[in-house]
Structure formats: C-alpha cells, structure tokens
Amino acid sequence: MTAAALSLPRPLLWPLMAAALVLSWSSGFIGIRYASESAGVGLVLFWRTLMAGLILLPFALTLGPRMSWRGIVAQCLFGVMSVFLYLGGFALAIGARVPTGTVALISDLLPLAIAALSQPVLGERLSARQWLGTAVAVLGVLIVSGDSLSVGTAPLWAYGLTVASMLVFALASVVLKARPGLRMPLHQSLCLHSLTGAVLFGLCTGWQGSLKPPLTVPFALGIGWLVVFGTFAAYGIYYTMLRLYPVARVSAVIYLSPPVTMLWGWALFGEPLTATMVAGLAVTLAGVMLTVRG
C-alpha cells in the first residue's frame, strides 16, 4: 500500500489518505452492530482477527522478503498491544458494565495520548497551534459524545482498563514509528498482528464457551465488513500513514471518527442526527484542520 500511496500526486496524497482513514476507522461500528446481533463481542473479535489473518497468510508467506524470527516476534508483540490489548480491553470493559458511550469517548481520545507521547519518544514537538487544534478537536468530540455519556455502575478497575487500552495502542503507534528497523511489508505485519489476536481471543473466548460461529447472515455480513474495512482498510491505511507522516498528525484525523460514525448511523440505521451533533462535527473538523496544518 505504501508504494501505491506514493504514486499519487503529492498534494492529493494527504487529503485522500486522511479521508480514507476516517471512513474506514469509523465504519467498524457497522460491522460490530451487525455481528453482535448473533454473538458476543469476544466471539466477534476472534472470527474477525482469524479471518483477516488467514486471508493474508498465503500472501505473507509468498510475497515480500523472507520473515526473520526476530521480525516475527517483534510484530507479534505489536499485535498483542495494538489488537489484543486494545480491542480486547474495550470489550472486557463493556462486559464489566462500563457504558459504551464512555468507552467510545475514551477510545476517541487516542490522538491526545499519541500527541503527548510523540515528544518524549519521537522528539516530535507539537506547536502551540497544534495544541490549540487538539483542544478544539477534543471539545468537538465531547459535544458529539455528550448525549451518550453516563457514569454507570462498573467497578473502578474497568474504567481504568479503558484508559489503559487506549494508552497501549498509543504507545504501540509511537514505538512502531520510532523503530523503523522492526518494520516489514504491511501485508506481513498485519497478518501477524491478526493471527496473534486470533490466538489470544480464541483462548479467552474458548475458555468461556464455544468458538463455533453463528450461521446467520448478520454475523457473516458483520465479520466480512470488519475484515475488509475495519482491519484491512483501517489498520492498513493507518500503518501506511505512520510511515509517511508524523504520528501526531496522522492520529489527529481519528478525532473525526465519532462524528463520522454518527453520520454512518444516521444514513444506514436511521439514528437521530441532532443540531448538537452537527455542531460537534464542525468543531472537531476545525480542530483537526488546525492540528494537521500546524
């Protein structure tokens, strides 16, 4: 994907990739909504990562350089962080009765954590204008998410788990940027990340019950959507952009995920679209523009 991206005219490269990242990252909501009608979140995550890894496996083995054991181990560790701990932590928090709106808000603050880590780990110092844009974008996310927030009755550790899951993915992003020597072709690294997640999700979910998938159309449609858009497109575009641009600039685009998810829900499922949500979208967009231009 990196080579294909670089073949685009340079002025068009950033806006096209940023738009594709927002659309694919936010569209994961659709797959989860369909698949979770027939199965629990753990089973959905297992089949999502297993199918993605198996589809990529023959390409990972036959295309590109031969994978070294050092590279395999490193990518599996990144898979533990960016797939198992990140997605699994949020799933466990929801299972512990943390309100989904609160979980979503914390996960959407990922760019803020990456911005904070990028200076000490990468030496990428954000300007005052970029920090202002970050604050405006966070305000927009709060406006969009305000109606869905609630305290809930979950134990304190479950709320801490959501924060930890977000921080783990942020750390994985900046470490991956800081260690270019550990990179391998995207289809190989994404295959290893997915298969690592599948093994760990399989152990956790299988310990609680069966791994047999429900033979329903919504489940198949949801898993297919999550594999193609939520994994191949979202993770693939994100990792490609990390190789081309500063990590804080790339992650800032994710602030647009909550309002775009809102538009997905309105367009496909008839969910309400209020003036407050539209205002939040406008504020978030303004903040992202300030951040990426700084």
Automatic annotation (TrEMBL):
Membrane topology, record value: Multi-pass membrane protein
Keyword Nucleotidyltransferase: no
Keywords: Membrane, Transmembrane, Transmembrane helix
Localization per record: Membrane
Transmembrane stretches, start-end: 12-32, 44-64, 76-96, 156-178, 190-209, 215-238, 250-267, 273-292
Single GO cellular component term: membrane
Pfam families xrefs: EamA (PF00892)
Highest taxon of the lineage: Bacteria
InterPro entries: AA-Vitamin_Transporters, EamA_dom, EmrE-like
Domain EamA: from-to ranges: 13-145, 157-292
SUPFAM superfamilies per record: Multidrug resistance efflux transporter EmrE (SSF103481)
Main subcellular location: membrane
Family that this chain belongs to: Belongs to the EamA transporter family.
Name assigned to this protein: DMT family transporter
Native source organism of the sequence: Rhodobacter capsulatus (Rhodopseudomonas capsulata)
